[in-house]
Amino acid sequence: MKPEKNCQSQTKLQAVAVLFEQWRSTRKKRDPIPENLWEAAADLSSSYSTCQISKALRATQNPPPVATSKSPTERA
Prior knowledge:
Blueprint: H1 3-26, H2 35-43, H3 50-57, H4 72-75
């Protein structure tokens, strides 16, 4: 990777990390990570591994499962 491209991707990673920190400072406990933040993290995958991204963003490596409209008793 060229130095200028590496610098640009590092800046993007830092910018997404700031977005995650801003969200964490205002969220309610146990709120799921918003879709736009997942998308921003996914956009970094062309420059970083999943492990590097999840460590930098302090996020799990897997997005949460899609919620269904059915209650747990209706699913059984």
